[in-house]
Amino acid sequence: MVKSELQVARAAYQPKLPQALAGIVKVSEGTATESVADQAEIKKLFPHTYGMPILTFQDGGESMLTAKMNVGVILSGGQAPGGHNVISGLFDGVKKLHPENKLYGFIMGPGGLVDHQYKELTAELIDEYRNTGGFDIIGSGRTKLEKEEQFEKGYEILKKLDIKALVIIGGDDSNTNACVLAEYYAAKGYGIQVIGCPKTIDGDLKNDLIETSFGFDTACKTYAEVIGNIERDCNSARKYWHFIKLMGRSASHIALECAFQVQPNVCIISEEVEAKNMSLDDVVTYIAQVVANRAVDGNNFGTVLIPEGLIEFIPAMKALIAELNDFLATNGDIFNSIKRSKQRDFIIDHLSPANAAVYASLPESVARQLSLDRDPHGNVQVSLIETEKLLSEMVATKLDEWKKEGKYVGKFAALHHFFGYEGRCAAPSNFDANYCYSLGHTASVLIAAGKTGYMASVRNTTAPAEQWIAGGIPITMMMNMERRHGELKPVIQKALVKLDDAPFKAFASVRDSWARETAYIYPGPIQYFGPSVICDQPTHTLKLEQTK
Ligand code: FBP
């Protein structure tokens, strides 16, 4: 593999570990836990993995050596910077337990387990991927593990390879899979442990004990670099409004974090739109007003950040999507057999009158996207909806009306961007490199301790890495019941932006001045070498959350 100079230098970086993981670990157990909601239902569905204690790792254990064993690993869902470091941390941890232990990677996500596609991850291979972005060492996929026959096919190959434990690196849906599998193997007495690791650039797999999902830090810093560059261009030419959509299928954490890093004129937070019961027109009016106010000062330029998931949070759209999901789950085959030109009318004829009216009012491209296939977890593929264009077109129309009424005096020219895939495979920042390596190592200790149904957890992450606290959190503790594909299912509760938490409050207190003034910050590219103050800073979100 030909490498860039940075890759060569970066390969030599030794990620930092929490103090407790550097030596021999002692595992201490807390008290029994409960799920965040729907306790009775979750307990019934997970009788073997419900109520387990929180685990904390400390120094001073006696021995971490185990009998020889093999371990499997799966990368699941969307790419996030640092996945290769979780695997290298796991590899180093597993080798520390017994030098003859082997690590197998299943190819292209959970599907690799079911289809028996795997490869051994040798020391030479792992060394090629240390501190690199991407998931290409084994690839990733979105197959949902939910059927007994998939679990059994998985068991066949795990038994054949003498694998004692499987580590699933994924987001909320994939860690839900991990827990379902852990429960199944425990119920069957197969003796195979399943451990999860919190991944997703979206930042929505977090709680008091999982402080952040890996990849969020690097992805936000990557987007903030380019948004900062756009802002500087925008402030130089002074003739465009840039509408920038940012990834994050549901939660607006990425948009909010980028807002702190670049101080744009507008940042829409989907969770606020929902809480205030705003319509699409309300959102458009808010943006148009900021444009009009800046025009009064002679500033016919600006930047608008739009979270990818916005559409689903506009209450009227949310109701429409919920009905569409249920409708397509039961009528998908008929819908797909109808001529494309008739599909829109077919939907309108079958929805309730209120939702049919909203659907009929949508531009063709958006309506079409809402009726296309869901991902395997039942989600609308919001990354394919061009919300940034929809909003800027509607803002332009509103400004034209205001111009006629004499309420607007400026010029409005819009440019559009979508930043998502650009950040998912960036070389991990020092934070993510250390965090991921620590998560992988933590997973190896959970395996050595014989645990299953746990997620690797590394806390106290605003302190230097040596002071981080590693341990394990029962996955059932994070679960609740949600409607998916028209059915109630146990899933890990998504962490949305909370309007009464410190990050949103901090944003709300400054956004009006960012809207009127040109208060841009240009963060520049991620730095891997140099003073700690520019290389090792966690996100604003994490710092604000941890100072509560
Ligand atoms: P995960 O939740 O699996 O980490 O994926 C998140 C994400 O990057 C979203 O931000 C985005 O909407 C989606 O994946 C895109 O999915 P795909 O890679 O299948 O196009």
Secondary-structure map with pairings?
Blueprint: H1 5-11, H2 19-22, E1 25-29, H3 39-45, E2 55-59, E3 70-75, H4 83-97, E4 102-106, H5 110-114, E5 118-120, H6 123-129, H7 148-160, E6 163-170, H8 172-188, E7 193-198, H9 216-237, E8 241-246, H10 253-262, E9 266-267, H11 270-275, H12 280-296, E10 302-307, H13 310-313, H14 315-337, H15 340-350, H16 353-361, H17 364-371, H18 387-404, E11 414-419, H19 421-424, H20 430-448, E12 454-459, E13 469-474, E14 479-484, E15 487-492, H21 502-516, H22 532-535, H23 540-546
Parallel strand pairs: 3-4, 3-6, 6-7, 7-12, 8-10, 8-11, 9-10
Antiparallel strand pairs: 1-2, 2-13, 4-5, 12-13, 14-15
Helix pairs in contact: 4-6, 4-20, 9-10, 12-18, 14-15, 14-16, 15-16
Bound molecules: 1,6-di-O-phosphono-beta-D-fructofuranose.
1,6-di-O-phosphono-beta-D-fructofuranose binds next to loops.
What does this structure look like?
The protein is globular, with a radius of gyration of 24 Å. The model has no long low-confidence stretch (mean pLDDT 94). It contains 23 helices and 15 strands. It has helices at 5-11, 19-22, 39-45, 83-97, 110-114, 123-129, 148-160, 172-188, 216-237, 253-262, 270-275, 280-296, 310-313, 315-337, 340-350, 353-361, 364-371, 387-404, 421-424, 430-448, 502-516, 532-535, 540-546, and strands at residues 25-29, 55-59, 70-75, 102-106, 118-120, 163-170, 193-198, 241-246, 266-267, 302-307, 414-419, 454-459, 469-474, 479-484, 487-492. It has a 9-stranded mixed sheet with strand order 1-2-13-12-7-6-3-4-5, with helices on both faces. A 4-stranded parallel sheet has the order 9-10-8-11, with helices on both faces. A two-stranded antiparallel ribbon has the order 14-15. Strand 6 (163-170), helix 8 and strand 7 (193-198) form a beta-alpha-beta unit. By secondary structure, it is α/β, with parallel strands linked by helices. Bound molecules: 1,6-di-O-phosphono-beta-D-fructofuranose. The site of 1,6-di-O-phosphono-beta-D-fructofuranose has 15 residues, from loops.
